[in-house]
Amino acid sequence: MTVKTAMWPADDPAAVARAAEVLRRGGLVAFPTETVYGLGADALDAAAVGRIFAAKGRPADNPLIVHVAAPEQARALARSVPPAAEQLMSLWPGPLTLVLPRAEVVPDATTAGQDTVAVRIPGHPAALALLRACGRPLAAPSANRSGRPSPTTAQHVLADLDGVVDVILDGGACAVGLESTVVDATRPVPMVLRVGGLPVEALRTVVGAIDMLSGQDPQAMSRSPGLRHRHYAPRARVVLVAPGEAAAMGGPAVAVMSQQPRPPGFVGRWQVMPSALEGYAQALFAALRELDAPEVETIVVETVPEVGLGRAIADRLRRAAER
Ligand code: AMP
Ligand code: MG
Q: Residue 5 annotated as binding?
C-alpha cells in the first residue's frame, strides 16, 4: 500500500500539531533528532509499531528505541530504574539510549520480545515539540530502509521512504549525525552495547565504572540484537584503508573519503572530510550516500583515530564495509 508522503517544516507549530494527530491515529511520522532522522510511531500501539518494521524492511528481532519528552515518561515505561540509570539520565536530553527493565505497557512489537526497553530523550527542539504535542512515547528507529546509511536530512528520508511514511518533518541537517550511544543500565555495572553520538568519556563523568560490549562476548548478539544485521551500507563496495593510503588507489570507478586534500593527478572522486571528529560525524552518512553514485564501484575510506567520537565513526565505517 502506498500513501502520499507530505513534507512539512519542523519549525512550524501548526505542522507539528498535525503530525502529532497523524501519530495519535496510528500513522508514521519521520522527524529530525540531533542524532539522525527517526521514523516515529506510537510506541504503545503494536499495530503502528508494526508499520515501522514494514516501512523499513527491518528484521522483527531488532528492537526499537522509544523516545520520550521527560524522565517521568521514561520511568513509566520501566519496571524499575536502577541507580546507575538515574545517574545516566542526567545526560538527557542527548544522544544516549538507556536499556531498562520493561514495564507491562510496552508491547512485544516495540521490544522485539525482550524483557527490557530502550529509552531516550532526544535533544532537538522539533522532536521534543512533537513528543509533547502527541503526548505518547514514540518508537523511532532511523528513518532509512534497513541496511542503508542512516538519514541525516529530510531528503535522505524521502529518498528511502517516499510513499510509505505519512509525514516527514523537515528540520534541515542533524547536528550530531550518528545514532545514540546505547547503554544497558539493567546491569550492576552499566554496559555500552553500541557506541554512538555520546562518547564513552562523557558517560564516565557521571558513573564510576562502565563496561564495553565486546564482539568476543559469546552473548553479544542477544545483548545487542542490532549487531546481527547488516548496516549503514551504500550500494558500492566500501574499503577501509589507513590514512595516506587512498592516494594510490585512484580509478574512474573509485570514490575516496579522506581528511587530506585531493592529491594532484588523482583519478576518481575525492571527498575531503572535516578534520574535527564532530564535523566528520555530522557529514559521514551524507558523504556515503553522495559518493554512492551509479558510476562508483568502490568507496575507499581512510580510517579515523578511535578516541572520543572517533570510536562511533570507526564502528559505522567498519559496518558499512561488511558484506
Ligand atoms: P536504531 O533505532 O536502528 O538505531 O537501532 C536501535 C538499537 O538499539 C539497536 O542496536 C538495538 O539492538 C538497540 N536496542 C533497542 N532496544 C534494545 C533492548 N531492549 N536491548 C538491547 N538493545 C536494544
Ligand atoms: Mg538504524
A: no
Q: With bands split at pLDDT 50, 70 and 90, how would you rate the model's confidence at 306?
A: very high
Which residues surround ligand 1 with Cβ inside 6 Å? Answer: 62-65, 99, 111, 114, 116-118, 141-142, 179, 182, 193-194, 224-226
Closest CA relative to residue 124, chosen from 7, 30, 6, 22: 30
Q: What pLDDT is attached to residue 32?
A: 99
For residue 1, pLDDT over 80 is answered with: no
At 203-236, the pLDDT tens digits run 999 998 999 998 788 888 888 888 878 788 899 9
Q: How many helices (H) and strands (E) does the chain have?
A: 11, 15
**Record: fold of 6-222:** DHBP synthase (3.90.870)
Q: Cell 515539540 maps to which residue?
A: 129
What is 237-321's CATH topology? Rossmann fold (3.40.50)
With a CB cutoff of 8 Å and minimum separation 6, the contacts of 163 are 2, 3, 4, 5
Return the number of other C-beta atoms located less than 10 Å from residue 272's C-beta: 14
Residue with cell 546505547: 182
